[in-house]
Amino acid sequence: MRSLSGRAFAAVALAALLVGCGGGQGSTAAGHRAGATPSSPPASSHAPAARSVSAVGRSTPVGLRIPAIGVDTPVMRLGLAGDGTVQVPPVQAHDRAGWYRHSPTPGQTGPSVILGHVTVGAYGDGVFRRLGELRRGEKVEVRLENGTDAEFAVTDVRTVAKAHFPTKEVYGNVNRPELRLITCGGARTGDGYRDNVIVFARLTSASP
Amino acid sequence: MRRTGLSALALACTAVLAGAVPAFADGGASQAPSPVPSAATPSERPSATTEPSAVPSKVPSAEPTRAPSGDQVSVVPSGAPNTGVAEPSSGSGGTWIGGGAAAAVVVGGGAVLLVRRRRATGA
Description:
The structure holds two protein chains of two kinds. Chain A has helices at about 1-35, 40-50, 165-170; strands spanning about 60-65, 70-80, 95-100, 110-115, 140-145, 150-160, 175-190, 190-205. Chain A is an alpha+beta fold. Chain A has an eight-stranded mixed barrel. Chain A folds into two domains: about 1-50; about 60-205, Beta Barrel (Sortase, Chain: A), CATH 2.40.260. Chain A is globular, with a radius of gyration of 31 Å. Chain B is mainly α. Chain B is elongated. Chains A and B meet through helix 1, helix 2, strand 4, helix 3 and strand 7 of A and helix 1 and helix 2 of B.
């Protein structure tokens, strides 16, 4: 009895010791989980990028509004010039933008291309005079012939030398509705300009 | 006597064990963190870093390359568009300003010469 009570006492003390050690391991496991949680935010931050707006039906653009730079202009149709370059709107007092008719209409899947002058000679400023001032996220609205308003958000604004015009990036295939706004910029060379200013935008909404 | 002796021994043993608990705990603690930062944490961090790097590389590459046929640019123009005709007035204005300044210098110089000659002949 005496020896039994002594052994029991020692056994209880050892058991208490082991329980204490087990608790320590539990806390390290919790630390692990805490360390693993930061891996989840990238997955959630990726989610908004995957958001896409469905394309709209084919309809010719008739108007263009860019509130941030005060543009509100009718849109004409443009084709190809005799030398294979893209046609540009005529140099006249009331300058307007033009849609390249061999590109998708705004809101369709693919890169829809709209061009406008930065200056129109003796007539002064062109319709895209302030295109280079646009910033990411700013709104571009296109009115279509069928009454649809396609709204785009600027994703990039680039000034590139005409000698290195990024043909593939501007006219190349894309799998969502996008918009390209093109004008001239940079230093003057003779009666023209050295660079092109290109605005890239993606469709954010379309209202019928 | 024996009882008290045994119980005293048992108490002494538990006291020793209890004293050793912190030492064990320290030992356990020193062992426990070492696998956490050295083995477990770095092994997870690379996996966490590889995830974000894989995400951006997938997104841009998938978007421009994969494209459905149909609604795309059917005829790609050559060259860059000429969407700007510079104002002609500003260049000619500059030449006018330059010419005017040169004329003013010539007239001023002539006047100075005339004054000097008159003074020389007068004296």
